[in-house]
Amino acid sequence: MLNRYLQPLFSEVNPMSELLPAPLLVSIVCPCFNEEGGLGEFVTRIGRVLRPTGQNYEIVFVNDGSRDGTLREMKALAAAEGNITIVDLSRNFGKEIALTAGLCHATGDAVIAIDADLQDPPELIPVFIQRYREGYDVVYGRRTERQGDSWLKKATARGFYRMMRRLGPVPLPENVGDFRLMSRRSVDALLQLPETHRFMKGLFAWVGFRSVAVDYVREPRFAGSSKWKYRQLLNLSIEGITSFTTAPLRLTTYLGFLVAVIAFLWGVFLLIRTMFYGDPVQGFPTLILTILLLGGTQLIALGVIGEYLGRVFNETKRRPLFLIDSITWSQEGAARRPDSRAAFLYGLPPGSPASPILGIGQQAPTALERTDSVRKS
C-alpha cells in the first residue's frame, strides 16, 4: 500500500534538489472520542510506515471524554510502545479543542494532525515529510474522492468551501481537513491564537506559511461510526462562518436596505393606485403580510447579531480552552519538556510550564490540584 502513495512522489522530486534534514522527531497528534475499536490498527499502521524509514516519532493521543474503553486502550498501547503521550481531558470539549490540546503537547520538530478512524491514510506521512524537507512549512492532504460519504454530505461540503472562499478573509482550500504536517514554527504561530471558538480549518489557513497540497482518496472508517451528524456539521459551518468573517452582518445590512426599498416602492404604488384609480387598499391581508415580512427580517437580523454577541461574550470570560485530568508522557515527550508557549490556552499564568513535566507513566495533577497550586503561588 505504501508504494501506491510514494510512487507519484518520487516521479515529481528533482533528485538534484537540495533537501532540508529530516525532522529529529515527528509528533503525530490524534484527538479521539469513542475510538476504542481502531486505535490498535492505527498504531500498527503508523509503525509499519515510519519504522522502516528510521524516522523518530511520537504519537500524542487526546482522549476527549470518551465513554467507551478508549482511554484503557490508549494506556495499554502506551505501555507496549513507549512512544505514546496520552492527554486525558476532564470532559468532552469537542474535536477542535481536543486537537488544540494535542498541539500544545506535541514536542516534535514537525507535527502531523490525523484522525484515528484511518480515513486519512498514515501511508501518506512519508510523503508529507518529504515535502517538509523540500522547504514547505505546511503540507496538507487534499481529498480527491470521499469514499463512504453520502451525496448530500459531499454536496453540502462543496457548497460550504465555496461560500467560505467568497466570504472569508483568507482562501480556504477545498476538500482539505485537519490531516496535515506543520513545521514547529507554524505550530507555535497557531498556538498564539487564543480564541475560544476555534474553527481549525480557518486557523490553519490564517496562519499561512509556505504550503503545498498532497492529493489522496479518503477511505471509509476502519471501525465504528462517524461522530459527525448533520446537525453537528451545520453547527460547525455556522461556527466557521461567524468566527472568520463579518460578512453575515454586512449581508443583514444589505437585506435591511432591500426590504426598506421594497416597502417604499410598494407604498408609492399603493398610494398612486388609490389616489388616481380609486382602488382601495385591502387592509387586513396587506397588514398581515407586511408584519410577517418585517418580523421575519428582524428575527433573522437579531439571530445574526446574537451569534456575534455570543462569541464576544464567550471571549470576554477568558476561560481556559480545556482542562486536563491526567497526562502520561512518552519518552521523547518527557525528555523534550514542552515550554510555556501555550500555557495561557488552559489557564496557567505567564511563565508557568505549559504542563507538568513528568516521567514515563507518571500522572499529571488533576485540574483542581493544578488550580489550587496556581492560587497559592
How are the elements arranged and paired?
Elements: H1 2-12, E1 26-32, H2 39-50, E2 57-63, H3 70-81, E3 84-89, H4 95-104, E4 110-113, H5 125-133, E5 138-146, H6 151-167, E6 176-183, H7 184-190, H8 200-207, E7 211-218, H9 230-244, H10 247-277, H11 283-317, E8 324-328, H12 331-336, H13 367-376
Helix pairs in contact: 6-9, 10-11
Describe this protein with a few key phrases:
13 helices, elongated, 8 strands, single chain, disordered C terminus, 14% strand, eight-stranded mixed sheet, 49% helix, Spore Coat Polysaccharide Biosynthesis Protein SpsA, Chain A
Please explain how this structure is put together:
There is one protein chain. The protein has helices spanning 2-12, 39-50, 70-81, 95-104, 125-133, 151-167, 184-190, 200-207, 230-244, 247-277, 283-317, 331-336, 367-376; strands at 26-32, 57-63, 84-89, 110-113, 138-146, 176-183, 211-218, 324-328. It has 377 residues and is of the alpha/beta class. Helix 6 packs parallel to helix 9 (230-244) and helix 10 (247-277) runs antiparallel to helix 11 (283-317). The N and C termini lie far apart (54 Å).
